[in-house]
Amino acid sequence: MPRSSAEDILRDIGGRDDAAIDLAEGALALAALDRPGVAPDRYRDHIEKLADDVGDALAAGKDLPEALTAVVLQAHGYSGDTLTYDDIQNANLMRVIDRKKGLPVALGILFLQAARAHGYAADGLNFPGHFMIRIGGGCDRIIIDPFNDGIERSAADLRELLKVTAGLDAELTPEHYQTVGNRDILIRLQNNIKARHERAGRPEDALRVIDGMLLFAPQSLFLWREAGIVHARLGNLGAAIEAFETIVDRADTDAARHDAASIVQKLRARLN
Known about the structure:
Elements: H1 3-14, H2 23-34, H3 41-59, H4 64-75, E1 79-80, H5 93-99, E2 101-102, H6 104-116, E3 122-125, E4 133-135, E5 142-145, E6 151-152, H7 155-166, E7 179-180, H8 182-199, H9 203-216, H10 221-234, H11 237-250, H12 254-271
Parallel strand pairs: 1-2
Antiparallel strand pairs: 3-4, 3-7, 4-5, 5-6
Helix pairs in contact: 1-2, 1-9, 2-8, 3-4, 3-6, 8-9, 9-10, 10-11, 11-12
C-alpha cells in the first residue's frame, strides 16, 4: 500500500464517528506507514479468514470466548510475545500477522474484529497497562485476555493485575470495567510504538508516529501537545508554534488555552 493511500484511509477515519471506525483497516493502514511497499490484500484476507473460522466454530456449538481462543490462538497459532515483548514489530498489525505474535492490544484487535463480524458486542477494556476485551455488559460481561491464552479474567485476576501495573495501593473500580472507543484503541496501539522510539532516543521517529495518530485523531489536543513538545525539542519552532496554536483554537477550557498561549509566546521569543 503506498504511504499516500494509507494516509488517506487514516484521514477518512479521522472524520468518522467512533462506532463507524473499522479497527482492522485502521491498524493495517498504520502498519502500512512503516511498510509502504507491502500490499495489504493478503492481510485483509487473513483477517476475514479468522472471522469465517470463528463463525464455523460458533456454528459447531462453541460459545464466543471458546471460538475466539480455538481459532485465533490454537488453530492459527497466535500468542502473546513474552520473550521479545518490546520488539516494535509487536504493534505493527502486518508484522503481527506475519509472525503470529504480538502485544495485547494487537491481538485484541484480531479478537474484536472476529467477534464483531458476527454481531457480538465486543469492546476494548479501559484497563491500565494490559489490554483486554469485554464481551457483553452488565452482570453477563466476560473479560478475555488475548495475550494470555485467551483466558477469562475474574475480578480477583483483574485486581492482581492492577496492582502489578498501577501499584500495590491500586484498587479495582467500576471505571476499570468501562470500555474504550475504537479511536482510543488505535491510539493505544501506536503509543506502544511511540514509547519505544522515545526510550531508544529516536525523537524523529516518535514524531512520525504522532503525526500518523493525528491523521485519525485530529481532535486530540493531547496529541497536538505531544507534537508541539517534540517539534520544540528538535528545534522545529515553527511547527511547534502551529501545534500549540491549534490547542489555543480548540481548547474548551480557559486554563488549557492560557497554558498553550503562554507556550506559543515563549516559542516565538526563541525565534527572535
